[in-house]
Write a structure and sequence with these properties.
This protein is an all-alpha fold. The protein has one domain: Orthogonal Bundle (Proton glutamate symport protein). 75% of the residues lie in helices and 2% in strands. It is built from 18 helices and 4 strands. The strands form 2 sheets. The protein has a two-stranded antiparallel sheet with strand order 1-2. Strands 3-4 form a two-stranded antiparallel sheet. Helix 2 crosses helix 13, helix 12 runs antiparallel to helix 13 and helix 12 packs antiparallel against helix 18. The relative contact order is 0.18.
Length: 424
């Protein structure tokens, strides 16, 4: 009996932790370290996933929008999607705000943790990444929506521009004469079906890719780095768990009117892949496959909701930004007023959307928040040791929120037979 994909990936995760811990970065054979092998295989798998993103996004959105038809239907779907993303991100941030104030991970034995933890050694590289960034980056999201060159935007991974162009292309297909519209619709449907077949093929190698990616992380970071930041790590993970295991199931049950457990099973391969890749965009092909094939959401809804969500809906990231900023303030011994914390909430909400397309997005967003409350950029060095693992956790939450959005919005659009049977 062949194991289901999510069990294969889960076993690979467990073996990767053991292998990475045993080999470290130095062990090897014949002059080649295991770490180099992990890096090569992991990068190869990530490249294969990223290779699918542009043609899959374009074809799925064009097909989905062409099927939606009228502008009023598109506007209704877009309004529901944006409202869902704004609400879930705000809820996530508030969960983080409450827990970081209750636990106070930045205070150890009554003393600010700054001197006990010490700043990380990469503050100069962080400063270089975030230098010149500011709240104005939020406004740039609108400029990135309209690229000067769509081919260049696709090559540079500017997903917002690609999504906007695909929305326009799909919408104006509906304005053509029937014979021409039929030719284009058939073409893009065929492209979409081919991309899903390629996705199926690439995912057969997912357990190997996941093993390599996670083993590489464990080999390089080990577990010693977590000890000084254990309380911060636990606070973030606990807040993410509340959003993942409490808030999302409630939304699925109340607004989606579906069984949350079935949705967890349906999304298991995508969630495990998101955890290992730390990339919502790289996981998008598998997210779409799970939402459509396992959960039963139509391509009409998923092709609009999921690519947009992978670009702007960052529940886990927004939560992390809020917790990290307040933790750093606590570590520096700074008391934050209610007004300041409210400002942090609003800036975290805006930056989780506005800077999602920028490299090192979380570091950039946190730096903006730190500037808002008057802390130096190098304070980000406090959280570097555990940032990689927490990135894996928050990406999983981001992807799950996107998938829940697809289910909730599909039900709001009147779709039937969603998660009605146990996924195959």
């Amino acid at each position: 009996m062949k194991l289901k994909l999510h069990w294969q990936i889960l076993i690979a995760l467990g073996l990767a932790v053991i292998a990475g811990n045993l080999t470290g970065t130095d062990a090897g054979l014949f002059g080649v370290t295991f770490y180099q092998v992990y890096e090569f295989v992991g990068t190869l798998f990530l490249n294969a996933l990223k290779m699918l993103i542009v043609p899959l996004i374009v074809s799925s959105i064009v097909v989905g929008i062409a099927n939606i038809g009228s502008g009023s239907a598109l506007g209704r779907l877009g309004g529901k999607t944006v409202l869902y993303y704004a609400c879930t991100s705000l809820i996530a941030i508030l969960i983080g705000l409450v827990l970081v104030n209750l636990v106070s991970p930045g205070v150890i034995n009554g003393e600010p943790a700054k001197d006990l933890i010490g700043l990380g050694g990469e503050t100069e590289s962080i400063r270089a990444k975030v230098e010149g960034r500011g709240a104005g980056d939020v406004a740039e999201v609108f400029l990135r929506m309209v690229p000067t060159n769509i081919v260049s935007a696709a090559a540079d991974g500017q997903m917002l521009g690609l999504i906007f162009f695909s929305l326009l292309f799909g919408f104006f297909i509906t304005k053509l004469k029937k014979d021409r519209a039929h030719v284009l619709s058939n073409f893009w449907n065929a492209v979409y079906e081919v991309m899903m077949l390629i996705t199926d093929w690439v995912m057969k190698f997912a357990p190997i890719g996941v093993f390599a990616l996670v083993a590489k992380v464990v080999a390089s970071t080990g577990f010693a780095a977590f000890q000084p930041l254990a309380l911060f790590f636990i606070t973030v993970v606990l807040a993410l768990a509340v959003h993942f295991f409490v808030v999302m199931p409630i939304l699925l049950r109340v607004f989606g009117r579906v069984n949350p457990l079935r949705h967890y099973r349906a999304m298991a391969p995508a969630l495990l892949t998101a955890f290992s890749t730390s990339s919502s965009s790289a996981t998008l092909p598998l997210t779409m496959e799970c939402v459509e094939k396992n959960a039963g959401v139509s391509n009409r809804t998923s092709s609009f909701v999921l690519p947009l969500g992978a670009t702007i809906n960052m529940d886990g990231t927004a939560l992390y930004e809020c917790v990290a900023a307040i933790f750093i303030a606590q570590a520096y011994g700074i008391e934050l007023s209610f007004a300041t914390q409210f400002t942090i909430v609003m800036v975290a909400l805006l930056t989780s959307i506005g800077v999602a397309g920028i490299p090192a997005a979380s570091l950039v967003a946190i730096s903006i928040i730190l500037a808002t409350i008057g802390l130096p950029v190098e304070a980000i060095g406090l959280i570097l040791a555990v940032d990689r693992i927490l990135d894996m956790c928050r990406t999983t939450v981001n992807v799950f929120s996107d998938s829940c959005g697809a289910v909730v919005i599909a039900r709001a659009e009147g779709e039937k037979n969603i998660l009605t049977e146990r996924p195959a």
